[in-house]
Amino acid sequence: MADAVVDIPVDLIDPDPQNPRGELSDDDVRVREFAEQLSEHKTIYQPLRVLKAANRYRIVIGERRWRAARLAGLEHVPVIIEENLSDLAVREEQLAEMAQQSEVPKFRQYEVWADFVSRLTDSGMSRKEAIAKVAKVVGKSERNIAGVIGTGYVQAPKALKALVEAGEIGPSVVGLLNGTGIADDDRVKLAQKIGSHIFKTTGTTIQSELMPRIRLGDDIANRLIHDPLFSLDDARRADEGRALARRDDERREKLKRAKERESERPRTMGEISFEIEGDLVLLTAKLRSLNELNLVEHLRLQLLKPGLLLFNEQWEMFKQQIPDGFLEREVPMLRKGDE
C-alpha cells in the first residue's frame, strides 16, 4: 500500500535542526530557483516526509521544497507523515537524501558517514555491519566508507578538509598525515606540498618514508615541512651527503686512533734508522740545491750558527758511539774529513 499523501499548512512545519546535511537557509541558490518555479506552477510533485511532533510537524526529508513553497507563497504542501520512525531511521533517510545532493561538501558527507557508523555501533551493530549499512544507503563501496572514516578525517583541521574538498588531496592522505607530535599547521603544510606535487608520492611513500622522516624532528624534517620547494628527493640527497660525511668522520677517527696507538708503541732501532736516513736525504737535497745554485754566500749564516753548533756537538757524541772501524770501512770520507 502506498504511503498516504496529505496537504498540511506550511506554517505548521518546522525544519529538523539535527539534519546531518547542516543548516539550510532561504538564500540557498537552489531554494530560490525552486521558489521561482513554484511561483509559476504552484505544484509540488514530490511530497515532503515529516514526523508528527505534538501539534506540529518536523521535516525528515524535503526542507528545500518547504522553504521554496513559503517563498513562493504556497499555503499548503503535500506530505507523507511517518509513523513510529526511530531516530536512526530518520537519520538513515536524511543520509540517503544527502547522498543525492551534489552541492553538499564532501567533508560534510564524510563527517555524516562517520557519525552514522558511530550511532549504529552504539545501537549494538558491529562496525563491519555499520559500514556495510552506510555504504548501501549512500551508494558507495564499503572500502570507500571504511577508508574515509578510519583515517581520522573527521577529526582533521578544517584547512585539511578544505584541501580534500578542493580535490587537491584525497581523504586517505589526511589519515596518513596523522602523527603523534605533529602540529595541525604542519600537517596542512605537508598536505599542500602533496597537493602541489612537490612531494611526488604515493600513499605507501607517505606512510613508509615521509612521515617517519618528519618524526625525526631534525633540520631536514623542518625543511620538509616549512620549505615550499624542498622535496623528498632533496631530503634523500641530504641524507646521503650526511651519511658520506659520517662515514668519512668515522674513517678519520679510526685513523686518528691508529696513529695514537702507533705513537704509544715503542719504536724499533730500525725504524729510527729509517727516520734518520730520511732526514739526511732531505738535508742533502737542500744542501745540493744551495751548492748548485751558488747560494751559500747569500745565506744568513749567523742565523744558522746556533743550529750548526748543536749539530756538531751531537755529531761528535754520535761518532764516539759508532763501533770502531765502521766509518773507515763504510763512509771513509767522514773520517777523513775529521783528520
What does this structure look like?
The protein is of the alpha/beta class and 339 residues long. Among the domains are: 1-87 and 97-102, Conserved hypothetical protein from pyrococcus furiosus pfu- 392566-001, ParB domain (Alpha-Beta Complex); 158-236, no CATH class; 297-339, no CATH class. 62% of the residues lie in helices and 7% in strands. The chain has 16 helices and five strands. It has helices at residues 29-41, 63-72, 87-99, 106-122, 127-138, 142-149, 158-165, 171-176, 184-195, 203-215, 219-226, 232-264, 269-292, 301-321, 326-330, 332-338, and strands at 6-9, 13-14, 48-53, 56-61, 76-82. The protein has a five-stranded mixed sheet. The protein is rod-shaped. The relative contact order is 0.05. The mean pLDDT is 83.
Measure the end-to-end span: 143 Å
Shape: rod-shaped
Please report which band the strand proportion falls in: under 5%, 5-15%, 15-25%, 25-35%, 35-45% or over 45%.
5-15%
CATH evolutionary superfamily of the domain at 1-87 and 97-102: Conserved hypothetical protein from pyrococcus furiosus pfu- 392566-001, ParB domain
The gyration radius over C-alpha positions equals 45 Å
Helix content: 55-70%
Main beta sheet strand tally, sense and closure:
5 strands, mixed
Summarize the helix and strand pattern as letters.
Answer: EEHEEHEHHHHHHHHHHHHHH
Biggest sheet strand order reads: 1-5-3-4-2
CATH topology heading of the domain at 1-87 and 97-102: Conserved hypothetical protein from pyrococcus furiosus pfu- 392566-001, ParB domain
Number of helices: 16
CATH uppermost class of the domain at 1-87 and 97-102: Alpha Beta
